[in-house]
Amino acid sequence: MSRIMETLTLGRVVGEVVDMFTPSVKMNVVYSSCNKQVSNGHEIMPSVIAAKPRVDIGGEDMRAAYTLIMTDPDYPSPSDPCLREHLHWMVTDIPGTTDVSFGREVVEYETPKPVVGIHRYVFLLFQQTRGRQTVRVPASRDNFNTRKFSQENSLGLPVAAVYFNAQRETAARRR
């Protein structure tokens, strides 16, 4: 198993959010406010993630199109994720070899605000099977289900994924 898949499995992203998949496209997620790159399982302070990140998509085919999903599988708290998953962001029709600004933002970026416990925030990239396609926008951010959404929109398994952890900042932790 690749190192990427190992960390996604240990972090329970594979299993709780998506099924096992083979990463085939490079995705780079960077929060510009402090040039912080997202790495699997690393913690990022909520003050850093207030604005949407830059997400660069690799791939070999500029004609390919992708859908990006950002979700919180630990909402509202990791011990009782009764509204699992919470959808924070969705961008569709992203051309390969570009970044998400070239796509169509169908669910506006919502700043993560963990209140209780350590939350995982997961970025998932799906290749659209029919190039530019209509992806049905979910009715609610709460109780989003990545697997179900992928099936309903014929997206298949992800081609890339990365996640980070965040928890509420206390006055003592801020600088």
Automatic annotation (TrEMBL):
InterPro entries associated with the record: PEBP (IPR008914), PEBP-like_sf (IPR036610), PEBP_euk (IPR035810), Phosphatidylethanolamine-bd_CS (IPR001858)
Gene Ontology biological process: flower development; vegetative to reproductive phase transition of meristem
User: Could you tell me the superkingdom of the organism this chain comes from?
Assistant: Eukaryota
Report the source organism. Fragaria ananassa
In the record, the note on similarity to other proteins reads: Belongs to the phosphatidylethanolamine-binding protein family.
> What is the protein's given name?
CENTRORADIALIS-like1
